[in-house]
Amino acid sequence: MKTSTIVAATVGTLAIATVGYALYFDQKRRNDPDFRRKLKKDRKRAQKLAKDEDKKKTTQSAQSVEEALAGIQDEEFPTSMEDREKYCMEQLSAGEALFTQGPEGYGLAAICFFKALKVYPAPAELVMVYQKTIPGEVFSLVMGMLSKDVQSKQEKYYTVFPPKEMNVKIEEKPEGVTADGQKVMRRGLVAAKDFAVGETIYSESPVISALDPSLEGKDFCHYCLKQIQNASTKVACPSCTQVVYCSETCQKSAGVEFHDVLCTKDTDEVDGAERNLAEYTKNSRNKVVQMLAKFLVKMVYEESVNSGVEYNAFDHMERLRYLEVASSPTEEKEIELLRNALGSKIPGIDEFITEERYLVMKGRLLYNLYGISTAKDPNRAVESSPERERSVRDGPISGAGFYRVTSYAWHSCEPNGKLDFAEGTNKVSLVAQREIKAGEEILVGYIKHDDLSTEERRLELFTKYRLRCMCPLCETTD
Ligand SMILES: [Zn+2]
Ligand SMILES: [Zn+2]
Ligand SMILES: [Zn+2]
After folding, report:
1. Which residues on adjacent β-strands are paired with residue 382?
2. What segments bear the compositional bias annotation Basic residues (predicted)?
3. Distance CA 41, CA 372 (A)
4. pLDDT tens profile 415-430
């Protein structure tokens, strides 16, 4: 079961009426006018019925909402677009038939409307329709179910993530004690089995990554960040001269996930919003705003393909630690660039990118980014980024990536784990540097500290990551 990020965000406050909803770049909706027409017809019919709505109180209680939810917990929802449409229409008309019977039908009607919401490609929009067309009592029940559903999805997260095949678990670990004696906890990665020295624990591709802006468009792939050593294999974007790819596969993936929306197009008639964003990235060497643009487009793409993956990019990001980023003219400018570049293409994105949400997303990226080394040629090394990224800088850095699982790896000055970009792409492998036993925490280095004194190292870790290192090296040099 899957609930849209936007619906989840709105249910959180139940401010459905005022919500500037629908961050839903919704290919299905666009591609299927029939679906909308059918729904409109249904809405009209429902509106008529709602007029005669019985005002008697429903007997459905909050408890039966939970029961109802439990009842459909294991229900399999159809997966193909065609089946989902059929299913959705069936639930909508069944729900409508039920609520016209009066209060005794409200509970079952709510279940039907809830089920329809689970498969409808633009749930936020459907919620708006419900609000206008179904009896208030039924609407409250549906929202109650949705709210519970979102809550249980939140609670379930760490029981299904990370996936078993990654051989790690996320567990709470003590981080220290506050001045008044309160225990501080954090999350960390723990080995699910034993690993020998040099063994790969897992590999993962980033949610989103970006090249250092100075390498863009030359001999590094815009999608996987690989250095393209043979010019004949280079694939250009069909619409712009700003980016290149190592293969057609990368070009296609980048296209559907984010580049089709963010491409500068390099034509005269296009307005400059995408170009302004690209220029800003290049001139400021600030990748984060571009990465957030890619992130948001990819998140909406993931929701629109509705692949059955329960947690999307946003679900993964919203649980992570972040740095406090204060608003400044820089952030104001970045928000404007982002809204302009995406606003006309993703309905509702303007309202979604509030200043508060932007600052937190930026803080999450800055806290969790890793430097990526893909350059085969050491001469292609770039100056370390002005932005924060975790890296012990063993090799030249070519970009940065945001990873679902690796974000949870905690720092040690003497780590037992090491990040490796063995394929020369943004795919990272976590490799055991020492023998690691099941249940042991896996730690990596966030900073290179060979040239730093203990004090300098501590200061850097604290200012960059609010982190008081408790590794043996830091504990014994006290
Ligand atoms: Zn590539
Ligand atoms: Zn392009
Ligand atoms: Zn340390």
Report:
1. 397
2. 37-48
3. 52
4. 999 999 999 999 999 9
Q: Which of 13-22, 377-386, 437-446 has the highest mean pLDDT?
A: 437-446
Sign, Cα dihedral of 77, 78, 80, 85? negative
Distance between CA 74 and CA 1 in Å, rounded? 9
pLDDT at res. 117: 86
- Tokens of residue 328, six digits: 């400044």
**Residue-range domains of the chain with CATH:** 5-152 (no CATH), 164-205+403-476 (2.170.270.10), 208-368 (no CATH)
As to burial, measured by CB atoms within 10 angstroms (0-12 exposed, 13-18 middle, 19+ buried), residue 131 is: middle
For residue 31, the CA-to-ligand 1 centroid distance in Å is 30
Farthest-apart Cα atoms in the chain, separation: 78
CA of 3 to the centre of ligand 2 (A): 32
Task: Identify the pLDDT of residue 395.
Answer: 65
Least confident of 14-18, 62-66, 223-227, 257-261: 14-18
Q: How confident is the model at residue 102 (pLDDT cuts 50, 70, 90)?
A: confident
In whole angstroms, give the CA distance from residue 255 to residue 208: 13
The SS3 call for residue 274 is helix
| Cα–ligand 1 centroid distance for 393 (angstroms) | 22
Please name the residue that has the structure tokens 């709602």.
50
Burial of 457 (0-12, 13-18, 19+ CB in 10 A): buried
473 and 222 Cβ atoms separated by less than 8 Å: no
Which chain residues have CB less than 5 Å from ligand 3, an ion? Answer: 413, 469, 471, 473-474
Q: What mean pLDDT is predicted for residues 276-298?
A: 93
Highest mean pLDDT among 10-14, 363-367, 385-389: 363-367
Q: How confident is residue 104, by pLDDT bands cut at 50, 70 and 90?
A: confident
The pLDDT of residue 11 is above 50: no
Mean of all residue pLDDT scores within the chain: 83
Q: Which ligand is nearest to the CA of 224?
A: 1
- Centre of ligand 3 from the C-alpha of residue 190, in Å: 18
**Gap from CA of 159 to ligand 3 centroid (Å):** 30
Find the 48 Cα to ligand 2 centroid distance in Å: 49
CA of 238 to the centre of ligand 1 (A): 15
Buried/exposed code over 374-400 (b: 16+ C-beta within 10 A; e: otherwise): bbeeeebebeebebbbbbbeebbbbbb
Cα of 312 to ligand 3 centre, how many Å? 33
What is the SS3 assignment for 3?
A: coil
